[in-house]
Amino acid sequence: LSMACAVISVFQFRRKGFLFNNAYLYAGKREKEKMNKAIENMEERLSTIRAGRANPNMLDNVYVSYYGTPTQIKQLATISVPEARQINIKPFDKSILGAIEKAIFEANLGITPNNNGESVFITIPPLTEERRRELVKQTKEYAEDGRIAIRNIRRDILDELKKDGLSEDVSKNIEEKIQEVVNEYNKKVELIIKEKENELMNI
Question: What is the pTM of this model?
Answer without folding.
Answer: 0.61
